[in-house]
Amino acid sequence: TLFLRFDTSSLLIPDLNYKTASIFGIPIPPPLNIAITPVRLEGTLDPATGFVSLNFDAEFRFTATSLYTPPALIVNTLLSTEPVQGRRLGGAGRRLVDNAGCLVGVSNVVPVNDAFLDAFLLLPNDALAVLSAELEFS
What we know:
Strand order of the largest sheet: 1-4-5-6
Structural class: mainly beta
Shape: elongated
Low-confidence stretches: none
Order of helices and strands: EEEEEEEEEEHE
Largest sheet: 4 strands, antiparallel
Helix content: under 10%
Number of strands: 11
């Protein structure tokens, strides 16, 4: 088993917006944007089985132009190649084959004490991450 730790300052995670994401199956309406700032991404990989388990902690910063900037959403989840289940959402990952697979995670996102954002996202609520992954080692 290998321990993996990623340099979060070099992770490139695209913002969530109408081009890249949806909430409840509906594209995020412009001008809403969610920037993701990773804080931690580390865990284990078993090269023999393709099993991956990574702890992912991040701040999700929601904006609607410069006029509205609520507190950051704190997301802590375990990304895995195995099935995951939250209170409402779940998914199944796929173990790595030739260094490619799928990681899934469910996080319980707690309210941030902002009336609009808490109501818009129905907080507290599950957030589901589904990430196609290709790991390259050098």
